[in-house]
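Journal club side-thread
Mid-discussion, someone asked how the predicted structure for our own chain would compare to the paper's figures. Pasting it here so we can look after the session.
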Amino acid sequence: MRKFSAKAFAQLFVRLRSGSETAVKLGVAPKDASAQSARLLADERVKKEIARLDESDTQTLAYVKSGLSRLAFGQVNDAAALVFAEQPDLEQIAGADLFNVSELKRVKGGGVEVKFFDRQKALEKLYELDGEMHGRGRAEDFMKALCTSAQGDISHLLDEEGEQ
């Protein structure tokens, strides 16, 4: 197992919001991830760092976009490997990247049904969140600048009229 700091755990946890997934990504064996993450989440240093990061979170929109990008463009290889595995073990399941899976269940007759999040909806949400893709960001800035400039011109004219 790789060594990592309480700060490193807290920083990744704030992004993933899953203790076990955070522990696995930091090198903890999947079978030990749940216990290790519970211990770390109880640690005062980790709690304080998570609280500090949550308070100063200026990255929320970036995290949302990152998650949506992961849904829209992420691979489903691990889910497919689990479906075709004869008898996957717990370590294989715990280590699999199932971020794009919305539902996984065994069906009668021995099959497995996997449902994935809708990539099209994820792309649509990304498009909605990114004003620059629409040209809105630049257009709004331009309009604000024009309005500010026009207000300055008008107030200057009104001041001149009041003096006459």
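Post-session note: The CA atoms of residues 86 and 110 lie 11 Å apart.
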